[in-house]
Structures are given as structure tokens and as C-alpha cells.
Amino acid sequence: MSQDTPSSTATVPAAATAGEGARQGDAFENLLHETRTFPPTPEFAANAVVTAEVYAEADADRPAFWAKQARELLTWSKDFDQALDWSNPPFAKWFVGGEVNAAYNALDRHVENGLGDRVAIYFEGEPGDTRAYTYAELTEEVKKAANAFESLGVAKGDRVAVYLPMIPEAVITLLACARIGAVHSVVFGGFSADALRSRIDDAEAKLVVTADGTYRRGKPSALKPAVDEALSREGDAGGHTVQNVVVVKRNGQDVDWTEGRDHWWDETVGAASAEHTAVGHDSEHPLFILYTSGTTGKPKGILHTTGGYLTQTAYTHKAVFDLHPETDVYWCTADVGWVTGHSYVTYAPFINGATQVMYEGTPDSPHQGRWWEIVEKYKVSILYTAPTAIRTFMKWGRDIPDKYDLTSLRVLGSVGEPINPEAWMWYKTVIGGGDAPIVDTWWQTETGAQMIAPLPGVTAAKPGSAQVPLPGIAVDVVDEMGESVPDGHGGFLVIREPWPAMLRGIWGDPERFKDTYWSRFENMYFAGDGAKKDEDGDIWLLGRVDDVMNVSGHRLSTTEIESALVSHPAVAEAAVVGATDETTGQAVVAFVILRGDAANNGDETVQELRNHVGKEIGPIAKPKNILVVPELPKTRSGKIMRRLLKDVAEGRDPGDATTLSDPTIMQQIAQSLRK
Ligand code: 6R9
User: Fold this and answer.
1) Which of 191, 286, 615, 675 has the fewest CB atoms within 10 Å, i.e. the most exposed one?
2) Alpha-carbon torsion 136, 138, 142, 148, what sign?
3) 158 phi and psi, to 5 degrees?
4) For the segment 198-212, what is each residue's pLDDT rounded down to a tens digit?
């Protein structure tokens, strides 16, 4: 560890008293001693797309500010009458009465405006195959897919489950759904058949779009078998709702085939007509559902609608990345299975007419310079990635990126978790060559679009801080009572006013929507994150204050993994914590009490349990460590004290254990782990 790596023994910030999970805040205490600032260079500021006046303009009248963006950035087939209807909080309606088609805005209109020959996607497959799509070509593919899906009986409002790797067909599928008003629900390809099935059932999907497989570290990796398995089993309610499965041929591996249900993409989409007229959908028409982990075991289907979502994603993409679509080459490394791959790969870049790079594989395939080779090859100018990736590259050493010409890079984005100052500085100097501004963007699946981020031509950036709410966004940090904290203090991150890309609810569960986000503080959206305002009023994110972990920027619920563990016959009880990890931000650590015989077979059982979690949820949820213990620390009311387990998992002496029902338990645990 370098000298200024945030120390885990630093004083607990105010936010940490907020909840057990807030102990993660310890690791970020040192962030608050960070005083360096990096103002934009005069050249950058002079050419910036957005200047400082926007803040005042937006503050003067937020709905009017967003209405202006909506009309500037989108082509409406019917103009809206009202910017915001907030008469029934927390259910917002944006751009009421307006009609808009997402795919028309992303594609057709650029072709109509003479930009048909501009490259929309430079695709780079993991094995090295490449494809480029111009806007004209991508429009044609989306029209064909829209016709093909309609011919398979998919109509406006129907749900389509998408289980695809990071290939152009993924965005083609999503845009085709949006075009016909079908609601896509992407399930990350790393999730298991069980997870896929429960999401198919919850959304009652009619169609599944998948691929035979993809490539992972040079090897074929299958997807279709998980779909077959998901659809072959008894669901909670018996049968399933899926009528058809469309399969993209990607890695050529053998697949099982269900006649009548399964259709090759090449044949179905390939044979479809390239004529398709897009009609406007109501501004509040559902665009997609995306499942995300919450504090309970059951993932929530986050619902987003059309007009507001497109407006805020497009505006932030332009303002935060200082997008000059004629000259920039943009690359967001997120998978389409996550919200970043929706907002900042599938929608905003195309709405803004940008040229983007899409890469299928892992950063170390076939060598650890693969990303930098891609940056050099396509002259990428805007890179958007996650701190966990930066920390991995730091570990591999600067020699690797130093071999490539990275001078095309002029804006560097970060998302998914707090970025520590060391990683921030490394990103800026080694990857950005010193001058390129870093934009640390805070947002969530629920917020739909970026909410807190510096503006690269305006803000003097601070390493490790997302800093300022974007224009038109009302973020605050409040104490337990919901009172705004003064500068220099910590608390809970909240959003005080509705925003265009906000979630419209949880699929099929309006009460859960209110309980989860709107009940902690009156009239405020509670994000689940701790944060601190520094002396300048800039915001520093401190990590989750609930039972949600963040592993490599992916959200995982402790409860969900605990349920998976106890569903195994060998496990009597389980508790899961997210332990601070130098590379992945947090790592999953599980404490389990084994039943009878299994206890004598510790090592084997532990391996079996890891695989079991992989099967139940997906490989990303596999615990890094599973520690077999005789007991779990519980309060007198029976609540597991994860805070103490986190201390153990992070190698600290557990803190105050006096509220335990049996204060000797921590010693028993320590003893069992020493064995
Ligand atoms: C976009 C995305 C959301 C959670 C969020 C927070 C963490 C995301 C962050 C960040 C600090 C940033 N998070 N960006 N924390 N700084 N720039 O990641 O959505 O997968 O829903 O995760 O991620 O804890 O609450 P999602």
C-alpha cells in the first residue's frame, strides 16, 4: 500500500453512524484531506460545449431548463404541453402530452440530416474481428429487427428479455424494441439461468433475444444453454410467458434447438424488410426495465420511461463529456447489462450523433494492453470507465499503457463507485497525459442519468470527488432528521426535486417504490449512499449506507447472497459483508455456520458453496472468501451485526461488541479462524 492510501483506521466520518454499511466510509476519510485542484486548461474552457452560466439558468426554473433541453436535443413528433407534472408525488410525469420515438431520434433523423455516412459503431470483437456500422447501416438493421420482432408477435407494451454479450446486436435489439414501443429488460450475460428465469417471470417477457455465446479470455463462453435451462424449469407460477427465442450466431458453438420457439437472428432479422416507419410514443411510455439489487433478497425491476430519460441522458452526455460529435470518438466500456450500458452506450451517444467504440471482451485478452491498443487504433477521445478497471491497470503497471499512443484522449470519465485519489491521479497522468480532465460521475440505475459530476470546461476538479450536482439537479446531504448539513459535514445523500430521468417506479410494485426511496425522509428521494460536503460545499461520496455491496462497480445485495447460501443443504446460517478490496472496491466475504457432517469437510464444502452461489445468482456474486464459523454475532433482538464481521473480514480488531447477545462470540470466531 502506498503511503497515502486511505487508511482503514481513520476516524469514522459522521455518515458512518448512519448505518452498518457506512463503515466503508472509513476508507474514504482520507479523501477529505485531499486539497489539490485541477482547473480546466484555458484552451479546453474556451472550446467547451457548456459554460458556467447554465447553473444559474437551471436554478432559475428547473422544469423550464429541462423543457429547453428536451426541445433542443430531441425531435418530438408531438410537442409537449407541460414540462413537469408533480401533482402526485413520488410519481412524476415529464414532458406531458409529448410524443417521441427513441429509435427515430437515435438513428433515422441523423440519416435524414445528411449524417448517414458517419460511423455510429466501431465494433471490436474479443478474437480480433471488427465491424463498423454507419448511421445509415445501423438504422437499416434496427428497422429490420423491429419488423422481425413484430412478425414474432411483439407489440407495443410487450416485454422483451435480452440476454446478449457486448456485440452490436445488443444495441440493435434495444433500439428495435424502443422503436416499436416494446419494453426491454436486459439481463446481464453473467447472471445464471435462475436469475434469468426470475426476471423473465417478473416482467412476463414474451420474447427472449440471446446468442449462442461469446468469447471470454480467448475461449468460447456459452449463453444459449442458460436460456434453455431457464425456460425448461417449473417457475414459481408454473409455466412461463416466452413464445419465441431469437438467437444471434456469435461464437458458432453447438446449441440445442427447440423447433417453433427458437429462431436464428440471421434468418429472422436477416430476411425482414428494411422499411419501417417509426411512430411517436407518449413521453411517459415505458422504455425499459432493468433489475438491480436492493437491500432485500428480491431484485427490483427499475422502470424508466421515454421523454425525460432521453433528455437527461443526452444532455449529460453532451455536457459532462464535452461532446463534439463531429470529431470525437467516444468509448464507454460498460456492458449493456448495466445501466451505464443503457444510458451511455445504447441511447445518449446515438441521440447525440456520436461515433462510439464497442468492445466485446476482457481487458487482458489477448494481452494486458488491449484497451490501449483500441484507444490508439480508433483515436478514442472520450473514455468512460470504472475505478475498478483503473486500479487493475495500476496493478499491471504503467509500462503497458506507456507503449501506446494515447494522445487522442481528451476527457476521462469514471462511474460505478468512489474513485480514490491515487487512482484518479494515475488515470489523469498515465492515461490522460496530464491535461485531460477527469469527470467522476455519480448516479444510479434509479436515477437513469448522471446527477453529480464536474463540468470539464468549468469545474476545478478535485481528485476523488464527484463535486457538484449537474445543472437542473437538486442534490443535498442531510442528517438523520432530514436537515441539510452545513459544509464540512457528512450525512445521507438525497435528491430534493424530481428530475427528468428518474425511475418511474418498481415494475409491478408501486408500494415498494415508495417504501424504498421516499419513506426515509419526507419529500426527498433517498439514494442509499453516504456523502460529505467539504468546506467549499463540494460533494464526496462515501459508499452505501445500506446492505448493498459494490463489487467492481456492480451492485450486489448481501441478503440475496445470504439467501443463496442458506438454500444449500450444508448451510445452517450465513452472513455476508462487503470487505474493502484494493482492486474491486469491495469483495464479497461470507461467514457460514455449517450443518452436521458438512462441518467436517470444510474445504470441499466451501468450494461447493462458491459454485452454488455462482449457479443461483451468477459468477460475479461468488464470495471471494467463505469463512466457516461456529456462531454469528447477533444483537439481543437477533439482528446480525455485520459491522463486526466486516472488521474481521478486513483484518481489524472488531469494534464495540457489547451489544451482542453473547459477547464472547467474537472471540469464538477469531479462534475458529486461527485454526
Ligand atoms: C451508474 C451506476 C449505483 C451505486 C450508487 C453508488 C455507486 C456510482 C459512483 C458511485 C461514488 C461515483 N456509485 N457511481 N459512488 N462515486 N461516481 O453505477 O449505477 O449500478 O445502480 O450503482 O453505485 O453507491 O448508489 P448502479
Assistant:
1) 675
2) positive
3) -70, 155
4) 999 999 999 999 999
Q: Report how far apart, in Å, the C-alpha atoms of 387 and of each of 425, 449, 532 are.
A: 12, 18, 20
Q: Is the CB of 376 under 6 A from ligand 1?
A: no
247 CA to middle of ligand 1, Å? 32
Which residue's C-alpha comes closest to atom 6 of ligand 1? Answer: 417
Match 445464471 to its residue by C-alpha cell.
192
Model pLDDT, residue 236: 66
C-alpha pair distances (Å), 593 with each of 21, 78, 254, 432, 520: 22, 61, 41, 48, 33
**For the residues 473-482, what does the mean pLDDT come to?**
96
Q: Which amino acid is at 89?
A: P
Nearest to 170 by CA among 84, 234, 88, 265: 265
Span 137-185, pLDDT tens digits = 999 999 999 999 999 999 999 999 999 999 999 999 999 999 999 999 9
How many residues does this entry show for the chain? 675
Pocket test for ligand 1, best of 31, 188, 550, 620 (most atoms within 8 A of CB): 550
Q: With 0-12 CB in 10 A as exposed, 13-18 as middle and 19+ as buried, what is 569?
A: exposed
Reported ipTM: the value is 1.00
> Dihedrals φ, ψ of 119, to 5°?
-70, 130
Average pLDDT over residues 110-129: 98
Give CA–CA dist 185/271, Å, rounded.
Answer: 25
Q: β-pairing, 286-292 with 300-305?
A: antiparallel
Q: What's the rounded Cα separation, in Å, for the pair 549 and 556?
A: 5
Q: How far is CA 417 from CA 266, 346, 389, 575, in A?
A: 38, 21, 11, 23
User: What pLDDT score was predicted for residue 16?
Assistant: 30
Output the pLDDT for position 14.
Answer: 30
* pLDDT higher at 119 or 602: 119
Query: What pLDDT, on a 0 to 100 scale, did the predictor assign at position 28?
Result: 45
Three-class SS state of 172: helix
651 alpha-carbon distance from chain centroid: 29
pLDDT at 48: 98
CB atoms within 10 A of CB 89: 11
- Cα of 419 from ligand 1 centre, angstroms: 11
We find that the CATH architecture of domain 552-673 is 2-Layer Sandwich (3.30)
Please name the residue that has the C-alpha cell 436486459.
186
Residue-wise pLDDT tens digits, 268-306: 999 999 999 999 999 999 999 999 987 666 789 999 999
Confidence label for 19 from pLDDT (cuts 50, 70 and 90)? very low
The rounded distance, in Å, linking the Cα atoms of 32 and 484 is: 19
315 lines ligand 1 (CB under 6 A): no
Distance, CA of 593 to CA of 548 (rounded, Å): 22
Q: Report in angstroms the alpha-carbon separations of 579 from 21, 32, 442, 595, 601.
A: 10, 21, 21, 25, 25
The domains of the chain are located at: 552-673
Cα angle value 417/423/429 (rounded, 5°)? 135
pLDDT (tens digit per residue) in 557-580: 888 898 889 889 898 888 999 999
Please check if 216 is assigned to a binding site.
yes
